[in-house]
Amino acid sequence: MVVLGIESxxxxxxxxxxxxxxxxxxxxxASQVSTHEKYGGVVPELAxxxxxxxxxxxxxxxxxxxxxxxxxxxxxxxxxxxxxIGSLLVGLVYGKALALSLGKPLVGVNHLEGHIHAVLLENQxxxxxxxxxxVQEAQLPAVTLVVSGGHTSLFLVAxxxxxxxxxxxxxxxxxxxxxxxxxxxDDAAGEAFDKVAKLLALGYPGGPVIDxxxxxxxxxxxxxxxxxxxxxxxxxxFSGLKTAVLYRVRGTSLxxxxxxxxxxxxxxxxEVVRDHLxxxxxxxxxxxxxxxxxAAVQDLVERTLAAADACRVDSIFVSGGVACNTLLRERFTxxxxxxRLRVYFPSPALSTDNAAMxxxxxxxxxAAGERxxxxxxxxxxxxxxxxxx
Length: 389
Ligand code: KG4
Ligand code: ZN
What we know:
By secondary structure, the chain is of the alpha/beta class. Helix content is about 45%, strand content about 20%. It is globular.
């Protein structure tokens, strides 16, 4: 089944063509970084306008790169939430209109389910062939950490095979279920990276910038202590850590340095900023970001391992933009080796927002007969799965 996926929940306009939830024929992502970077965060109204500008060319480009005419698309999967409502509506209404005008089936996909499917999709398309594996290779049930700019959540993901494989080299149909184990009570982890980077005038998005700068700093320089949670130990909270960084900066020479950096950035070309940012940071700033990153990563890894213990599973999936973080990948890989766990990450391109993951998640719903009607609409908040505190 050739599925066109459409994703517009935040600040990336994305479309992809994926066959049988496994083989990526194309995946196009139009980033809005240049629109939002001067604000140090996503401005919802500007995001919607950018989606409006880009949705048609991005879908066309995805079909062109896949070598598939829009008529040959067999079904459409579109993100229905959670996300920025104005942004979501652009992709959703376009997907709905396309499905109606072409007479093709349509399905709505939860963005978080998409991030989970990014891991399964990567696993299946590791050598570029849809047929190379099955979702079982990614070892379900698994505890999944979805960690991005908008979300930090833990799920227990399980699947049951529905019927036999539809063809010899194709995976059997799966029915997935999700149990919520915990989530952030305030900021998402990626949001904390972005806000710390904004405070220190390091650039946007903050995650990749801090990831790069932290290599020059001492992660032991500042002891932020453990993040303590009352109640559910599998919940997260990053606003305290962010505020602890703020208190270390406000009214000190670090704040003056950040102001000078802000001015320098305004006059410097993008490549100059990229290559010379570490030279514009004192050792104290570099140590602070390295220590912040260490504290955030340690918390993410420890709670995810605790969830795997509690659920008695030996597979962990990590997905979402923050899954690109170098230290996070290192720490999870070390933990996996010492505890005999398997940890799966999507490649960076499938970790951040994309539409291939939406097409993949949508495929299983479509194959199971799920269809959305004209009443499909966007939801700013849309929980995934059952349970949870
Ligand atoms: O999944 P994503 O593209 O969009 C959301 O659903 O939010 O994630 C974007 C987030 C941003 O907060 C960005 O700073 C963070 O992922 N991020 C990283 C890294 N790369 C992206 N955070 C830490 N380290 C990275 N290397
Ligand atoms: Zn996302």
